[in-house]
Amino acid sequence: MSTRKRRKTPPPDWNLPLLTDWGLKPEQQRLLVIIACVAGVLVAAVTLTSVVAALGADARTEPQQAAGLTVEGLRPERFEGWASPKVFEPIAERAKDAKPFTAKELFPGRTLTGAHKVTFKLSEKVVDADCAAALWGAELVTQAAEAGCSQAARAAYTSADGRYLAQFTLLNLNDAKVAGELVESLKSLHRGGWVRPVTAFPPDAYTEGGAYALGHYVALVWLARADGAEPAPRDDFANLALTVRAAEKALFKRVVALTGTS
Fold first, then answer.
1. What pTM, to 2 d.p., does this model score?
2. DSSP annotation of 148
3. Contact 159, 115 (CB under 8 A)
């Protein structure tokens, strides 16, 4: 019985018309095709690596930007505003109370103590000559500038038990009229603009705020639980606000200095 030999597969024909016209021999054509295939694979790999790296960079950047917006966009869920008491009439105009305030004048001590044994510890303080550095929200920044805001002082506090965060802000404006107008505007304006935190509040924290016209000044009080949760029955935010407002003592001293009365 005769055994038939298996026919070998004929080698591919490397006589490609275009390459043949260029004068390339079959062996040269084969080598050129192999090189082109390898180069194509390498280019595809490099391109894929670049795309993946770019996607990774975007994934890292977006959360950081979102976090920044969350901090800047943090505003009080509950807000109240109060007109200036008569006691501050002697400092109703900055022209009569022209001396700029200092951080030492407003925040001389390291602690503030209120009723029910509430104590706040000062963690950070800053005074800015540019009020825009202390505020966010285009409308609020514009109104403060039009009111002649020349200084913005901010101080951050943490309660002694670590349960609460607070910030006191004082704006130095032209007169009591614009101070009162700013407080009134903030009753709705606070939804789109507020003070920048000196130290970060928890993202998405529940916070409460208040604005107080005090002659040609506006005081802004901002409160939150350190865990960012909504206040429980035992959380007396009204008393906490009174404790933080002890920083207003410096303004009472200015009234006394101008009037000579206690």
1. 0.73
2. T
3. no
Place of tokens 């002890």: 246
Q: Measure the CA–CA gap between 201 and 101, rounded to whole angstroms.
A: 26
pLDDT in tens, 87-109: 999 999 999 999 999 999 999 99
Q: Report phi then psi at 175, rounded to 5.
A: -160, 175
The whole-angstrom separation of Cα 220 and Cα 69 is 21
Tell me the per-residue pLDDT of 165-222, one tens digit each, with 9 for 90 and over: 999 999 999 999 999 999 999 999 999 999 999 988 888 899 999 999 999 999 999 9
- Cα-Cα-Cα-Cα torsion 101, 142, 167, 82, nearest 10 degrees, comes to 90
Q: Per DSSP, what are the bridge partners of residue 12?
A: none
How many angstroms separate the Cα of 173 from the Cα of each of 13, 65, 129, 147, 181? 89, 33, 12, 6, 11
